[in-house]
Amino acid sequence: MTEHLGSGSAVAGDVLIHARDLRKSFGSFEAVRGIDVDVPRGQAFGFLGPNGAGKSSTMRMVAAVSPPTSGTLRILGMDPSTHSSAIKARIGVCPQEDTLDLELTVRDNLVVYARYFGIPRRAARERADELLDFVQLGDKAGAMVDDLSGGMKRRLTIARSLVNRPEILLLDEPTTGLDPQARHVVWDRLFRLKAEGVTLVLTTHYMDEAEQLCDRLVVMDKGRIAADGSPAELVREHVAREVAEIRFAAADGSHVDLAERVAGFAERVEVLPDRLLLYSADGERAVADVHAAGLTPSTTLVRRASLEDVFLRLTGRTLVD
């Protein structure tokens, strides 16, 4: 039998994370305001949202390190308020910031961490070598952490979160700060984990990452869930299949005034300071209709609607600190 890097021991389809009317308050501030979530085994599930949306507070509750204020939360069928140690033994956590031990070698970072889970020393060394091969760091086993690139450190942090063969892997912004090549290497490793039955739960600010990795996701805003579905479902429900980005020269008038003239050519028109966004099933047809109306844009671009369009429509374009 092939040995999996994750556990995969329970029946497929099990709901590993179950939340109902889940709330978290800090004094008078309610960070999470009654959310419902179910994550079945083997799914890659994402939390998206602007700063302050409640993502991190939710992830800390799921990780059994922050007790809910009210509501129901079950992780692997257990209540984290009474079984936090048992839950932590069966999950892996990859924090946003790498917290590796700079005084140890790459390999010893994994061996020492494995010992925290009571893994015997010989088995810990074997597990460390297995994981270093998995994250493509086998040739760096004897190096010090300071000698690694940012992408290598991230992969080592992911490897460390897998030492206990977790059934759920929690990833907080897994590729923040990485260059495109390093991001794709991390994505490849996460795809492999999912294929082996590990349930992934992640937060990310990268919309392309969410589209690539997540089977399903929720968009959170101000502590509540604003939308729930697969990336394709969210695009279909909240925007449209295509977007025509149209810019006009200043001599043609303001984009606000021009928006009224093109409103009938799309399902929705959004006005930005420098362009109009026409959301429709056929972006080329929308552009043709604009020209047929006697308008001459200075530039046009037709593209597929994305999760970023959904995100901005649901949470707004205003920067949140």
Automatic annotation (TrEMBL):
Coiled-coil annotated spans:
none
Question: Which PROSITE patterns does the record match to this protein?
Answer: ABC_TRANSPORTER_1, ABC_TRANSPORTER_2
Superkingdom, natural source = Bacteria
Q: Which UniProt keywords apply?
A: Antibiotic resistance, ATP-binding, Nucleotide-binding, Transport
SMART domains recorded: AAA
Q: List, for all copies, the residue spans of the domain called ABC transporter.
A: 17-247
A GO term for molecular function: ATP binding
Pfam families to which the protein is assigned, alphabetical: ABC_tran
InterPro entries from the UniProt entry: AAA+_ATPase, ABC_transporter-like_ATP-bd, ABC_transporter-like_CS, ABC_transporter_ATP-binding, P-loop_NTPase
Q: Where in the cell is it found?
A: Cell membrane
Annotated membrane topology is: Peripheral membrane protein
Q: What is its main location?
A: membrane
* Residue ranges of the TM segments: none
Q: Provide the family line.
A: Belongs to the ABC transporter superfamily.
| Stated name of the protein | ABC transporter ATP-binding protein
